[in-house]
């Protein structure tokens, strides 16, 4: 019987924790929104994720971002190479400053 009360106590503590942190309100609001939907979604879990704000990026979006990252990395590499080339060309026309020349 003592084991049963300890279990109830833990459940009550957990329930108070969820209530205090706002989890119960958020879940209740999302479930009410789902209940009030006239056209129920095919995937209720996706509905919950979307309304709780945990839906991840779409695979197409991720692929587009990877492609953009690759293109920007290539552009950066080209610009760095061009910068290096221009610095080398500049050094041909401008002598490096000497130790006593700054007077």
Automatic annotation (TrEMBL):
Highest taxon of the lineage: Eukaryota
InterPro entries: AMY1
Keyword Coiled coil: yes
Location of the protein in the cell: Nucleus
Keyword field contains Nucleotide-binding: no
Keywords: Coiled coil, Nucleus
One GO cellular component, as annotated: nucleus
CDD domains: ZIP_MycBP-like (cd21937)
Coiled coil: 62-89
Molecular function per GO: transcription coactivator activity
Cross-referenced PANTHER family: ASSOCIATE OF C-MYC AMY-1, C-MYC-BINDING PROTEIN
Family, similarity comment: Belongs to the AMY1 family.
Protein's name in the database: MYC binding protein
Organism encoding this protein: Hucho hucho (huchen)
